[in-house]
Amino acid sequence: MGPLDSEVLLSQTKFQKKVFEATGLVIPVIKGFRWHEIIQKLSDEGTEVEVPEDNSAVGQLFEHLEIFLTGPKCTDDKDLILTGRVYIEGDSYYFRMKDFMEYLTRVRFNEFKTHSIAAIFRKQEMTSKQMKIKGKVLSCWIASLESIQGKLDVPEKIEQAY
After folding, report:
1. Left if phi > 0, otherwise alpha if psi is -120 to 50, otherwise beta: which for 108?
2. Which of 1, 22, 24, 91 has the least CB density, counted as fewest CB within 10 Å?
3. pLDDT tens string 111-161
4. 67-110, pLDDT tens digit by residue?
C-alpha cells in the first residue's frame, strides 16, 4: 500500500478500501466522530519519517520502469513497438505509454494515472515523439540513459531474451 493522503485518512470508507486492496482484510466500521478522534490522535502523536527514494511511489514507478525497459520484451526491431515491445536504439529506449500502463496494471501498481506518469516522465526530462510504423502513427516515450541516470540502474547492454 502506497502513501495515504489526507483525503483517504479522513474518509473511513476510502481507508477501508485501501486496506482491503493491500491486505484483503475488511476493517470494522466505527462511528464518524470516533474515527476523526483516532486520526487526530495519530496525527498529533505521529512522527514524520523521511522515506527513501525507492520506497516512495515515484521511486517504485521508476523501479517498474527499469524492469519494463530492461526485461525480455526488448528488441532492436522498431516495427515490434506495435506489439508492445520496447525498442532500443543506441542508449535510447522507445515505448508506448499504453504498453507501460498495461504492465503496471499486470503488476498491480496503480498509484498514478496516465497523465501523472507523463508529468513525472517530463520532469525527468524524458520526451515523447510521434513515429510512423507500418503506416500507423503512434506516440512513443523515449527514455535515454542520460535522462534517467540516478533513477535507474540500466545495464549497458541488453541481451535479447525471447
Report:
1. left
2. 24
3. 899 999 999 998 888 889 998 988 899 999 998 766 665 555 444 443 443
4. 898 888 888 899 999 999 999 998 899 999 999 999 999 999 99
Q: Same domain, yes or no, for 91 and 70?
A: yes
Q: Is residue 115 part of a domain?
A: yes
Is the domain of 59 the same as that of 137? yes
- What is the SS3 string spanning 118-158? HHHHHHCCCEEEEEEECCEEEEEEEEECCCCECCECCCCCC
* DSSP assignment letter at 111: S
Number of domains in the chain: 2
CA quadruple 18, 19, 22, 24: dihedral sign: negative
Q: Record the cell numbers describing residue 149, joined without a space.
A: 541516470
